[in-house]
Amino acid sequence: MAKISKKRKAALEKADLTKEYSLADAASVVKEITFTKFDASVDIDVRLGVDPRKADQMVRGIVTLPHGTGKAVRVLALVTPDKEQEAKDAGADFVGLDDYIQKIEKGWTDVDVIITMPAVMAKVGRLGRILGPRNLMPNPKSGTVTQDVAKAVKEVKAGKIDFKVDKFGIIHTSVGKASFSAEQLAANANEVIQTLNRLKPSSAKGTYIRSITLSSTMSPAVIVDKNSAI
């Protein structure tokens, strides 16, 4: 029999990990079984009844969490000179174009989100092989390629995130920190779920949302009663 870690044993003493909880209760349980010394991230995993190999079943979207992500998001704005001050005033951490493109080509990717303009995508496009695997490539569908750079920067700073179903049909994204209240975590998670419902592909057959779990960094997953969150 596999040895149970002290933290998992402590978690099992506080919660029944085979039980399905309402979204609100699941958020409370996750907080109770989080034992990290740092402020752990809280994540939601939603298994969807879609086939990501089919283009018309690729679920991708953006959502603004009502209580933010709880972490400082480092934003790089790749813009023309006339848009630089606008991006800085909106809160972008790094602003420029050719100089940052050269830095990225040399391996620098120390940012969380890159926002750019349609006019410079020809230059930014050549960074695809570097930014793509790191999920940093700007995309119009996620709102990171836009003429309104200031608005995009402000939204990202306020808690706007983008997500995409993986090859297993699972959406995985953060909904806050363990220091958030259970109500805040539940509200953020609910916003993700409701957004997924609105993005249901018309070609998806059968059960769309198959399972939902919440977990924090290094904690076991807590099963959410999907009927309580749909």
Automatic annotation (TrEMBL):
Keywords from the named record: Repressor, Ribonucleoprotein, Ribosomal protein, RNA-binding, rRNA-binding, Translation regulation, tRNA-binding
PROSITE patterns for this protein: RIBOSOMAL_L1
CC annotations in GO: ribosome
Membrane listed as a keyword: no
InterPro entries referenced in this protein's UniProt entry, alphabetically: Ribosom_uL1_bac-type, Ribosomal_uL1, Ribosomal_uL1-like, Ribosomal_uL1/biogenesis, Ribosomal_uL1_3-a/b-sand, Ribosomal_uL1_CS
Pfam families for the chain: Ribosomal_L1
Subunit structure, interactors included: Part of the 50S ribosomal subunit.
Stored NCBIfam families: rplA_bact
Family label: Belongs to the universal ribosomal protein uL1 family.
Function field: Protein L1 is also a translational repressor protein, it controls the translation of the L11 operon by binding to its mRNA. Binds directly to 23S rRNA. The L1 stalk is quite mobile in the ribosome, and is involved in E site tRNA release.
Name the UniProt record assigns to this protein: Large ribosomal subunit protein uL1
Gene that this sequence comes from: rplA
